[in-house]
Amino acid sequence: MLKNLEEASEKLLKKISDEVDESWLIVSISKNGYKIADYLAEKLGIERKCLFIETVYCQNNADCEIAFVDEFKNIKMNEYVKTLLEIKKKKVLKAIDVIYEYKLIPKADEFRGNRETFKIGEKQSKILIVDASLEQGYRMELAISTMESFGIDDIYIAVPFIPTHIFDIFESKVEKIFHLETVDFYTDISDYFEDFEKHIPEQDTFLFD
Predict the structure, then answer these.
(1) Residue 178 within a domain
(2) 142: which of 12, 76, 77, 176 fits an S-S bond (Cβ 3.0–4.6 Å)?
(3) Are the C-beta atoms of residues 46 and 13 closer than 8 Å to each other?
(4) Is residue 74 assigned to a domain?
């Protein structure tokens, strides 16, 4: 167990520092991932950017993630949950449209201070995607797909803890996974930190009638 995200950042830095140069770009994909990415970027002296991604949750169930959408309106659905709960795709897409327009884009604009979109510099050929956790992998899959759409082939992941079966899935999808520990029986990210600010979904990110 680690004390907090700062300790996780320090330990990840030791694993990453020898491989990074100015051709790398650090990309965070969540609020807690941003904290790690910000620390790494400052210590490594390279650029850090944020790819905004919002989660769509099943109605009245904060533990059930059904879809993810990023600022380019790329979408990743949890087809298993959608099929299991017999949720119509049209209903999910309707929720995505609302969340994208009224939540994701305003949040990205406020963060950047303008209507500027996420961009990758001409000299940046390697992407390090950073998050605080990689539990089911849908958010990360979306981020990888979006980075590939920019023509980036060298993609890396940095995350403190990762379930063993998820590690096995992503190991072939990226160049390397920088991590502190693989966990056979993964429970919840907050169980691996003494102090962890767990994300609480806002009401307007749930499916609606």
Answers:
(1) yes
(2) 76
(3) no
(4) no
Distance in angstroms (rounded) separating the CA atoms of residues 27 and 118: 10
The pLDDT value given to residue 63: 72
Can you give the residue range of the structural domain that contains 18?
5-50+124-196
In degrees, to the nearest 5, what angle opens at C-alpha 116 toward C-alphas 112 and 117?
A: 100
In a domain, 208, yes or no: no
Q: What is the DSSP string of 111-164?
A: HHTSSPPP---TT--EEEEE-SB-SS-HHHHHHHHHHHHTT--EEEEEEEEEEH
pTM of the model: 0.92
pLDDT, one tens digit per residue, over 100-149 is 999 999 999 999 887 678 999 988 999 999 999 898 899 999 999 999 99
Name residue 69's beta-bridge partners. 54, 75
Strand partners, 73: none
Q: How many domains does the chain have?
A: 1
Instruction: Check if the beta carbon of residue 77 is closer than 8 Å to that of residue 139.
Output: no
Residue 81 lies in a domain: no
Domain of 26, CATH number, reads 3.40.50.2020
Give the helix/strand (H/E) hosting 4.
none
